[in-house]
Amino acid sequence: MRNFSLFCLLFFSCVFSVNAAIEVYQFDDESQEERFNTLIDQLRCPMCLNSNLSGSDAPIAADLRAEIHKQILDGRSNVQIIDFLTQRYGDFINYRPPLNPGTYLLWFGPLILLLTGLVIVWRIGRSSQKLSVSKLTTEEQEKLDNILADKK
Amino acid sequence: MNKRVLLLIPGVFFILMIGLLLFGLGRDPNMVPSALVNRPLPEFSLPDLVNTDVVIASQDLTGGGVLIINFWATWCPPCHIEHPYLVEISEREQDLTFIGVNYKDDLEDARLFLEEKGTPFEKVIVDLDGSLGIDFGLAGAPETFIVDSFGMIRYRHVGVINHQIWQETFEPVISRIK
């Protein structure tokens, strides 16, 4: 019985904590709601570094969601909202960092690595191909063909 | 010969990555660069904690000398930890102006807290809904900003201030901008 009530307690506390994380936002139309969801997925929580605003329970993430909601209702564009947050939190806030000299390595690094890898594979592949080319004389080749034919 | 050089690339790359890893391990992952450093203090006009009819505006604060702006709240345990040190340091450093921002707090609790434990602050600004926090790029409380006499933010500290942090990070910045 004690176990059961403990279970109930745990179960309901889980349910309540889930409820607590759900906020209800009203929008004028569906496109606003879509923009809201895209923005909170794309923007990063400044508190819990590895999650986005939609996935974070940190109080500051809730504040920023409310701020984004307010600005969407005020008719501000996505660019304006992202600018607003970048001015305060830096490029860090954006999971999709802008392309500028400071982020070239971030954007093109993986591509450079991939190309380097491909070049290495290609060079190695080509040189080992050269090694496998047979260097038999016509005479030797005939001999080999005979041996192979005998085996059949 | 050319192929040999190419074969060296993965090795060199590996060593570079190890170097990057060691460099990264030595850094505090919570050290997020602040967008506000070397930018002017955000503009605001918000109520005073002691008398909420009085409005404190950003331009009232600047121009007098170096400001230490500390975001705190009674609901924030680390703020309780750093409070005695803030009281001590504000008594010692008379030429600095300590400004508190009571962040998303119950005002009555906040007043009681300062009455009981003493106040390091010359003024306390009320930020009831956290909007000033957003303007400061706050991630949580406590956070402390150093503002120079021109009203430019020069440093942001996330987390508790203690004697060691004061000596190692605050004092160098303050002596540089004075």
UniProtKB/TrEMBL annotation, chain A:
Gene3D superfamilies hit by this protein: Cytochrome C biogenesis protein
Matches recorded under InterPro entries: C-type_cytochrome_biogenesis, CcmH/CycL/Ccl2/NrfF_N, CcmH/CycL/NrfF/Ccl2_sf
Domain of life from the UniProt record: Bacteria
Record's signal peptide: 1-20
Membrane-spanning segments: 104-125
GO BP: cytochrome complex assembly
Keywords of this entry: Cytochrome c-type biogenesis, Heme, Iron, Membrane, Metal-binding, Signal, Transmembrane, Transmembrane helix
Residue span(s) of domain CcmH/CycL/Ccl2/NrfF N-terminal: 9-148
GO molecular function (one): metal ion binding
One Pfam family of this chain: CcmH
Keyword Iron: yes
UniProt GO cellular component terms: plasma membrane
CDD domains listed in its UniProt record: CcmH_N (cd16378)
Main function: Possible subunit of a heme lyase.
Family, as annotated: Belongs to the CcmH/CycL/Ccl2/NrfF family.
PANTHER family for the chain: CYTOCHROME C-TYPE BIOGENESIS PROTEIN CCMH (PTHR47870)
Protein known as: Cytochrome c-type biogenesis protein
UniProtKB/TrEMBL annotation, chain B:
Thioredoxin domain ranges (all copies): 35-178
Source taxon at top rank: Bacteria
One term under GO cellular component: outer membrane-bounded periplasmic space
InterPro entries (UniProt xref): Periplasmic_diS_OxRdtase_DsbE, Redoxin, Thioredoxin-like_sf, Thioredoxin_CS, Thioredoxin_domain, Thioredoxin_ResA/DsbE_sf
Keywords linked to the UniProt accession: Cytochrome c-type biogenesis, Disulfide bond, Membrane, Redox-active center, Transmembrane, Transmembrane helix
GO molecular function: disulfide oxidoreductase activity
Transmembrane portions of the chain: 6-25
Location(s) in or outside the cell: Cell inner membrane
Membrane topology: Single-pass membrane protein
Database matches in Pfam families: Redoxin
Annotated PROSITE patterns: THIOREDOXIN_1, THIOREDOXIN_2
Biological processes, Gene Ontology terms: cytochrome complex assembly
Signal peptide range in chain numbering: none
Gene3D superfamilies: Glutaredoxin (3.40.30.10)
Family: Belongs to the thioredoxin family. DsbE subfamily.
Protein's recorded name: DsbE family thiol:disulfide interchange protein
Species this chain originates from: SAR86 cluster bacterium
